[in-house]
Specification:
heterodimer, A: alpha/beta, Aconitase, domain 3, 2 domains, 18 strands, globular, B: Aconitase, domain 4, 8 helices
Chain lengths: ~425, ~160
């Protein structure tokens, strides 16, 4: 029976010859992930049921990234609990202040996730690793607890939407514009319970950072996972990085899809999602005059090296507009250091930006850039829900690093090509 | 098993950030989460909700973050059941895993009004709007989910 790429990975991890959409399976997990918000709830669940040990100390990743460096006493208590759990269980991939990064930038960078993996994470943006040709999906803390104990999880095998990418994107158009365009087209529940399987000639024109950004936001149209085929770009990225042997899966040529969506990358323009849903998209020429108070460039969506380079190219020799706060957050310690080595940090600071240590911070209204009543931000993060970055009457405009950097300079949501 | 209560009605795409804002995620105890439930979409909800009440919403309920704090907050606020046209997939899993009853029924989600008295029979999937006299039939839970629920949640299920 023909299968999608996702279905092949799930079948293999369930020890089955084949699976079909709707089938319930139990799959072996290559990695179980949690952060400082979701892991304490999972650890409490384990304690409640007297489960003190994990299935494999090398296949659990605990990343303290949301409210770190700790913003208050409660967050410090949460991290302390996870730190003690990690020490007691000798968890190999425990990352704390000093070596941590935003989980979905850190795990691919360190080769902890790789092609062909089956991964669950107690964070909705765990779908990011589909960029490597892995099946990965977000779950809650109870699933994480069960996964840490048993190394397994149950899944309903998803059907899929095929997204055919063609052409080559223009300057200043990035993976962020591709995924915002797609979400605008199919809606925030357009792929509910399904896989998004990307394919087509255009894939080779997308960098790993583009692909990681695209898969990261698969959840924003309800998808269970997003996934890219493994090609030369993927192999160049994982070779010398992957900590485990990888396996390459391919969708069958006659695999069945619920729907086919075609996107010609060469026709895409910079895209902005207006408040308060990621589907409220407009192309940059339709935006009009939107005055802003803050810019955030970072997050698991757009805190990677290419994002930093794009922002620096635009901000070089310029100044952040008066009354705008520009916050730049390299997603990992390595990216932070590379920004210093490449001279990007100097460009940011000279322009009047602040450069933060890696943290999810403002993306979820945690800390490091909360909005007041009536304030507007352009953010490279993934959600613009009511109150997401602060006051319920604040507004978030989701955009690429290029649009965010251009907007920081002008003080209005702006087209980087016209700066 | 049955639930009966007054309906609190919401629209499409109720996200986990409005169910329980991230500023309250530094603690995970039930009472704390319940005291801030739905705060950013209806600041009066916590004052209005009574034990046993029923939440009804439209499409894609619980979209967004994977925070299990969201179904925990709803359950701890006293809500006995959430009826929606569709649920976001992580919320759906989380609700089952922590034992919050949920039902997908588009017709009921569209027609039931806020303030109606509604009774839900989980064994049959029948939803009765006592105020309007109309009844609806929701999809019953598939067997594997019934097993998780009858065992008292996922952790009980794997602890057996």
């Amino acid at each position: 029976m023909s299968m999608t790429m996702t279905q092949k990975i799930l079948a293999s991890h369930a020890g089955l010859e084949s699976v079909c959409a709707g089938q319930l399976i139990e799959a072996k997990l290559d990695l179980v992930l949690g952060n400082d918000v979701t892991s304490p709830v999972a650890i409490n669940e384990m304690n409640k049921f007297g489960k003190t040990s994990v299935f494999d100390k090398t296949r659990i990743a605990l990343v303290m990234d949301h409210f770190t460096p700790n913003k208050d006493i409660q967050s410090a208590m949460n991290c302390k609990q996870v730190r003690e759990f990690a020490a007691k269980n000798d968890i190999l991939h425990y990352y704390d202040v000093g070596n941590m990064g935003i989980e979905h930038a850190l795990l691919p960078e360190k080769g902890i996730v790789t092609c062909g993996d089956c991964v669950i994470g107690a964070d909705s943006h765990t779908c990011t690793y589909g960029a490597l040709g892995a099946f990965s999906t977000g779950v809650g803390s109870t699933d994480m607890a069960a996964g840490m104990i048993t190394g397994k999880a149950w899944f309903k095998v998803p059907s899929a939407i095929k997204v055919v990418l063609t052409g080559e994107k223009r300057k200043y158009v990035s993976g962020k514009d591709v995924i915002l365009h797609l979400i605008g087209k199919i809606g925030v529940d357009g792929a509910l319970y399904k896989s998004l399987e990307f394919c087509g000639d255009g894939v080779k024109n997308l960098s790993m950072d583009d692909r990681l950004c695209i898969c990261n936001m698969a959840i924003e149209c309800g998808a269970k996972n997003g996934i890219f085929p493994v090609d030369e770009t993927t192999l160049e990225y994982v070779n010398g990085r992957s900590l485990r042997e990888y396996k390459i899966y391919e969708a069958d040529e006659d695999a069945e899809y619920d729907e086919v969506v075609e996107i010609n990358l060469s026709e895409l323009k910079s895209t902005v999602a207006f408040p308060h849903l990621p589907e409220n998209t407009k192309t940059i020429d339709e935006v009009g005059e939107i005055k802003i108070d803050q810019v955030v460039i970072g997050s698991c969506t757009n805190g990677r090296m290419e994002d930093m380079r794009t922002a620096a190219e635009i901000l070089k020799g310029k100044k952040v507009a008066k009354n705008v706060r520009a916050i730049i957050i390299p997603a990992t310690q390595k990216i932070y250091l590379d920004c210093i080595k490449e001279g990007l940090t100097e460009i940011f600071v000279e322009a009047g930006c602040v450069v933060s240590t890696p943290t999810c911070g403002p993306c979820l209204g945690g800390h490091m850039g909360i909005l007041a009543k009536g304030e507007r931000a352009v953010s490279t993060s993934n959600r613009n829900f009511v109150g997401r970055m602060g006051h319920v009457e604040s507004e978030i405009y989701l955009a690429s690093p290029a649009v965010a950097a251009a907007s920081a300079v002008t003080g209005y949501v702006s087209d980087p090509a016209k700066l | 098993m049955k639930a009966k209560g007054t309906v609190h009605k919401f629209g499409d795409n109720v996200d986990t950030d409005v169910i329980i804002p991230a500023r309250y995620l530094n603690k995970s105890d039930e009472e704390w989460l319940a005291s801030h439930c739905m705060e950013d979409i209806d600041s009066e909800f916590v004052n209005k909700v009574k034990a046993g009440d029923i939440m009804v919403a439209r499409n894609n309920f619980g979209c967004g973050s994977s925070r299990e704090h969201a179904p925990i907050a709803i359950k701890a606020s006293g809500i006995s059941c959430v009826i929606a046209s569709t649920f976001a997939r992580i919320f759906y899993r989380n609700a089952i895993n922590i034992g919050l009853a949920i039902l997908e029924c588009d017709e009921a989600a569209n027609e039931i009004n806020g303030g109606d008295e509604v009774e839900v029979d989980f064994d049959t999937g029948v939803i009765s709007d006592i105020t309007t006299g109309k009844t609806y039939k929701a999809q019953p839970f598939p067997e594997f989910i019934q097993n998780i629920i009858s065992n008292g949640g996922l952790m009980n299920n794997i602890s057996k």
